[in-house]
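Cross-posting from the modeling subforum.

Setting up a comparison between two proteins and wanted a second pair of eyes on the formatting. Protein 1 (sequence, then structure tokens):
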Amino acid sequence: MLHEMPTANRLLAALPEAEYERLLPYLTTVSLAQRQTLWNPRAPIEAVYFPCTAMASISVLAEGDDPVEVAAIGNEGVVGLPLFLGSDSSPSGAFVQVPGEAVRMDADVFRQESTQEGALHRILQFYAQAFMTQVSQSTACTRLHRVEQRLARWLLTAQDRVGRGEFPMTHEFMAQILGVRRATVTEIAGEFQETGLVRYRRGAVAILDRNGLRRASCNCYRVVQEEFDRLLTVPVA
């Protein structure tokens, strides 16, 4: 159970204190393991998660293929947006990319609280718009930009979402996220390491030169981050 404002998650931190205190009995801090499934495609969503130091992936599975990420969710958001939009399931799945802590709320409680007019409802409206920007920008990025630009963008996003510069991540996992061959990721990650942008060892990646990664990334990173910053700083009290 939580006792202090969980400022590590931007949505919960944006709640007025009185609103957060009212929701407190329904919030539980949990530890999420890497690759842990948060919901399966077409299956009922039983809980939502407000990540603090973890990051989750919303992924789609094409017939016969590995899952491909369409959105990453970390400390800026909530895993379970379909419930807010009126559905109890999704054709996509959600699983944990980067292990860490999150705040859990049961689906029934979230559905009831998020549909009532109030601060949580307004915050989720802003977040839903920012999330749609992320998904649409990611779609364009996959089609238009080189893999090395997309990998640099993803690494920057991951650092933002988990709030630390080093986190567990394998080349195989990054290849699945980007929808490319593992050998391609290994080659590009090796180049990033040789130029001092990152350090990769023992299944973990460390960001060494954030400015360098920003130069290597496409403009999609800036577009998405500016939209999240714009929408999630709107007063809701």
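Protein 2 (same layout):
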Amino acid sequence: MDVGVRDVATFFNVSEKTVYRWIKDSKLPAFKIGEQYRFNRAELLEWATLNRVNVAVEIFSDPQKGQTPPTSFEESLAAGGIHYRVGGTDKVSVLEAAIKVMPLPQQVDRNFLLKVMIARESLGSTGIGEGIAIPHVRNPIVLHVPKPMISVCFLEHPIDFDAIDGQPVHTLFAIVSPMISAHLGLLSKLAFALRQPDFGKAIREQGTREEIFSAAHAIDTAVARKADRSEGKMEM
């Protein structure tokens, strides 16, 4: 899971000098071993998503590839479901309502999931701006979930979520995954999807389930093409 400064520069398509500047400004999550900085790939994706930073296709590579079958973006949305008019009047009650509508197995402790999501919010809001928040568990744990899921929750009333742009949140992408590799994959695909015009339009307009799934399918196709082009360049 740990990568170096050169990898981070590649992931974000910036110079190593920029990476060091981000570290110095206390913006980029890093830890130091000896004289070298190391980074957690999941934390990098979380940071990039929250700060709307473009990522290169290399960060989509699963460091545990071969251990678990990949889940498509469309499949993860289908597993989590699209939910409309989700209630709540503040951050905690909205998270509670979102967890209530998520199609989780009976053995999942929803109260525990709520507590760990609230704990994640105490570290800094997952409101990334433009009315969107991505509540999730910072370090994924086994919750007896058979496959990763993203539940899209359109709120009945926009609420203050302490988002980075100060705007109220109207849409949640609640992420639950069985292991960190799946969590990493979901964050990377969601970060990419939120920057694509068609998917963004479907979310802003609270489109139908069919429209959102169609836009998600297009994301999977685009990611696959990028990965194929990247592999082709490496082989040349």
